[in-house]
Amino acid sequence: MSFSRRALLGASTAAALPLFAIRQAHAADVTLRISNNVPTTHPLNVRLREAAETIDKETGGKVELRIFPSNQLGADTDVLSQVRSGAVQMMTISGLILSTLVPASSISGIGFAFPDYPTVWKAMDGELGAHIRGEVGKAGLVMFEKIWDNGFRQITSSSKPINTPADLANFKIRVPVSPLWTSMFSAFGAAPTSINFAETYSALQTKIVDGQENPLAVVETAKLYEVQKYCAMTNHMWDGFWLIANRRAFSAIPANLRDTVEKTLNAAALRQREDTEKLNNSLEAQLKDRGVVFNRPDPAPFRDKLKQAGFYNEWKTKFGNDAWALLEKSVGGLA
Ligand code: X2X
């Protein structure tokens, strides 16, 4: 009995082999390599994998989306160059880091601009997002319509809790590579250092910096809690991941397939927003269990500090009155 069953299994395995070979022979017509900076467990990668499966099915295997999480293809600023040259076809990137190429794209990261998620999505799916996409298009990149969520950012530290702007004085903090981030933390009186996310864990571990700021979903999935002790729920800015593509590579895809890719990824972004919001709202308890000590600072003195330092006026001038008006139309008066 057991012998015949094994024989049967053996036979079915052998029969499956040629099928596998046939599948391999039908390589995709289009392979899109897509890079991102977060671990496989982050909702961004969960929904990207799901989208890759949908795209495979709906294009009959003609389009393959190959996902490279955790900076496997390089740090953000390097991969941005690769997407421009076409060596990598796609990536997700914070609008603030993209601003090293297209300055307009960091406007969504102005400190304490967005009070909540409904305001974020209304602006980013509306006129403000359209303005940013227009500017990015001029720079020769394709930008997908729906931005993915990173979240509201919180400040973590290995040395002390951050309760007031005074606690940030000369505080050595890692910020992503972006003039807006450096400007904001300089305005708080901190000592910011630009470091790509790929090097952030080790910079915290070796105490090159004492702190960093990120949404809880990143603190959790990238295990930053292993090298950080305190977390101040400052919600000092909202941040999202734009999906961008090399224009030549993307235009070369036959229109009907391109349409499937766009529709599927925009729909995935909407689902990822829900996942990420839920995760960011639920992680405090879990991170407490991991030993992180939380505090909830009053945001008012932080906002006042930015005002007094001239932060809002400086960036209003940089972005220009028209773009600033689009932002204020969504979030109310800032400067
Ligand atoms: O680099 C970061 O901190 C991250 C992961 O939040 C961004 O991509 C901006």
Question: What does this protein structure show overall?
Answer:
The protein has 14 helices and twelve strands. It has 335 residues and is an alpha/beta fold. The strands form two sheets. Strands 1, 2, 3, 4, 5 and 11 form a six-stranded mixed sheet that branches. Helix 7 links the parallel strand 7 and strand 8. The longest helix has 35 residues, at 255-289. The model is unreliable at 1-16 (pLDDT under 50). The protein binds (2S)-2-hydroxy-2-methyl-3-oxobutanoic acid. (2S)-2-hydroxy-2-methyl-3-oxobutanoic acid binds next to loops.
Number of helices: 14
Q: Given the helix and strand composition, which structural class is it?
A: alpha/beta
Share in β-strands: 15-25%
Envelope shape: globular
Largest sheet: 6 strands, mixed
The count of DSSP E runs of length 2 or more, i.e. the number of strands, is: 12
Distance between the termini: 81 Å
Q: If you compute it from the alpha carbons, what radius of gyration comes out, rounded to the nearest whole angstrom? A: 22 Å
